[in-house]
């Protein structure tokens, strides 16, 4: 339940697997405000299977550079151009959340998925192995529905989380933040602009639509605590050292406080949590919506397989095992970035005012640290190596991605080959090593679930290897050589021909 970006992504994945489901949302309309504005490379990769990423890129605004305004000086720091060759989307895409939701909504509408708007979930009760949900329509009439599973994609104040009795621990930040979508005269287009002072940071992001720029700043402690107006924003911008820019034509202005909280569990019996219902944190690094969408795409195919009897319930427990650590890491990383950027602590104030101006010009040359930051922020580095559903065969390939890693797009075009919903078995080395008879025991009873690709020498692994790619693009099983015992054991466990 919930048709924000997380719920829409889940619906798209369930639909692609032919699962029966309902999506309800209490609001009458989708979000019209820009809200989350950065789409990460991994999210674009993950959504590409639905055929929506090209449309998102067409509507958005890739930004490759950061301009750090440090008093009278401006330093340019490349954002993402570190030569990432293993993804078709090596950039951060700026696009308003309202547009992202519109693209996903159109995708679902074209596939006859109806979002039941104006329908609120007002009660959830466990019954046997499933749930009885009480839904209230816009006319106040109530309906009860029986479901095997309920996924709470219902945001930070999640009803599902409350009804499932799952805690949401964390803390709130003391400061207030100001946000506006507007036009800024005099600002160089196509880059993120950051004004850094001892008192904090102010950003302008190239949004495009519904306004050319997003402004984000901490409200200085000595600034008036009044309603957000254009003159207030102009005054605050000048206090952050902005000179010669005129703010105008705002389409959205607001202030808000930030929180850092996480769900104690991602599953309780038939209830699952995804997106903001499971984790909220600062917008530093544009991770919130992206993490939610990727939660959904980790869970959707698992639910689909279990619902059609092609996998055991056990598969559903890997959702929390894989995504809860990701949520924790994102909360930790965004907290650090945020505190460094905004803390009034004297050491950090000094660092922002004195050290950053000296070190920033070197950032463009620091390729290795920038590559590490890119893998984290882009979410391409997320892996599930410690998941029970990630297995390395008796012999591990000498190089290349490991079980639990995301499949890289190497050679380019590999992602297109494995885009169809389902599992994909990649076989490398001379194709004659992989006759159909050799694969028969693995594929028997699963031919409709697993597609086989003989890649020859053009693969991410050297020599002869076998790898089973999950429907979410992560590697479930990886091994060197032609021996199939390990792979057989893997599919018997996770894709049993006769699930219990
Ligand atoms: C002012 C603002 C600015 C933001 N800026 C950024 C940003 O710059 N970068 C970033 O990454 N993130 C940002 N975010 C956060 C981002 O919007 C969220 O991370 C994202 O929307 C989470 O998506 P979601 O689908 O998990 O939840 P939501 O988008 O909150 O969707 C939840 C849906 O569930 C529905 N719902 C709730 N309860 C019920 C119920 N009982 N019955 C039926 N339906 C229900 C709601 O109507 C809603 O549509 C911002 C958020 C706000 C509010």
From TrEMBL:
Transmembrane segments: none annotated. Residues 385-412 are annotated as: Disordered. The lineage of its organism: Bacteria, Bacillati, Actinomycetota, Actinomycetes, Kitasatosporales. Residues 2-333 form the FAD-binding domain. Signal peptide: none annotated. It holds the Pfam family FAD_binding_3. This is FAD-binding domain-containing protein. InterPro entries: FAD-bd (IPR002938), FAD/NAD-bd_sf (IPR036188), RIFMO-like (IPR050641). The keyword Cell inner membrane does not apply. Its cofactor is FAD. It comes from the Bacteria. Keywords: FAD, Flavoprotein. Residues 402-412 have a biased composition (Basic and acidic residues).
């Amino acid at each position: 339940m919930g048709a924000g970006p997380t719920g829409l992504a889940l619906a798209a994945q369930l639909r692609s697997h032919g699962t029966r489901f309902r999506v309800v949302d209490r609001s009458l309309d989708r979000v019209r405000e820009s809200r989350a504005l950065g789409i990460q490379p991994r999210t674009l990769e993950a959504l590409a299977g639905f055929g929506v990423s090209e449309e998102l890129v067409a509507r958005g605004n890739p930004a490759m550079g950061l301009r750090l305004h440090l008093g009278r000086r401006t330093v340019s720091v490349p954002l993402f151009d570190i030569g990432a060759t293993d993804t078709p989307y090596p950039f951060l895409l700026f696009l308003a959340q309202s547009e992202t939701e519109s693209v996903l909504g159109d995708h679902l509408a074209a596939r006859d998925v109806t979002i039941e708007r104006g329908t609120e979930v007002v009660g959830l009760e466990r019954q046997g192995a499933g749930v009885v949900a009480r839904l209230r329509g816009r006319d106040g009439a109530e309906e009860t529905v029986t479901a095997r599973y309920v996924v709470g994609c219902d945001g930070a104040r999640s009803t599902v989380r409350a009804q499932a009795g799952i805690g949401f621990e964390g803390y709130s930040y003391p400061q207030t933040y100001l946000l506006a979508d507007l036009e800024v005269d005099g600002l160089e287009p196509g880059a993120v602009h950051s004004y850094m002072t001892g008192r904090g940071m102010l950003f302008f992001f190239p949004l495009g639509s519904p306004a050319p720029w997003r402004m984000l700043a901490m409200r200085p402690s000595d600034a008036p605590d009044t309603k957000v107006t254009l003159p207030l924003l102009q005054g605050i911008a000048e206090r952050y050292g902005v000179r010669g820019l005129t703010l105008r034509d705002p389409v959205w202005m607001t202030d808000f406080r930030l929180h850092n909280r996480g769900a104690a569990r991602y599953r309780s019996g038939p209830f699952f949590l995804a997106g903001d219902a499971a984790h909220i944190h600062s917008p530093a690094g544009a991770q919130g919506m992206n993490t939610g969408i990727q939660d959904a795409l980790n869970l959707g195919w698992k639910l689909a397989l279990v619902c059609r009897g092609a996998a055991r319930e056990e598969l559903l427990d890997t959702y929390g095992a894989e995504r809860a650590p990701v949520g924790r890491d994102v909360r930790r990383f965004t907290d650090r970035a945020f505190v460094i950027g905004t803390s009034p602590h004297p050491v950090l104030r000094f660092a922002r005012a004195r050290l950053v101006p000296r070190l920033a010009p070197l950032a463009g040359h620091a390729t290795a640290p920038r590559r590490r930051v890119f893998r984290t922020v882009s979410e391409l580095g997320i892996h599930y190596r410690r998941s029970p559903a990630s297995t390395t065969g008796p012999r591990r390939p000498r190089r290349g991605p490991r079980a639990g890693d995301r499949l890289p797009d190497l050679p380019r075009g590999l992602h297109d080959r494995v885009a169809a919903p389902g599992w994909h078995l990649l076989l490398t080395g001379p194709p004659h090593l992989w006759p159909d008879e050799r694969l028969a025991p693995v594929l028997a009873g699963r031919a409709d679930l697993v597609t086989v690709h003989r890649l020859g020498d053009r693969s991410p692994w050297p020599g002869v290897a076998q790898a089973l790619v999950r429907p979410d693009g992560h590697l479930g099983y990886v091994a060197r050589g032609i021996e199939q015992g390990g792979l057989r054991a893997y599919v018997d466990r996770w894709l049993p021909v006769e699930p219990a």
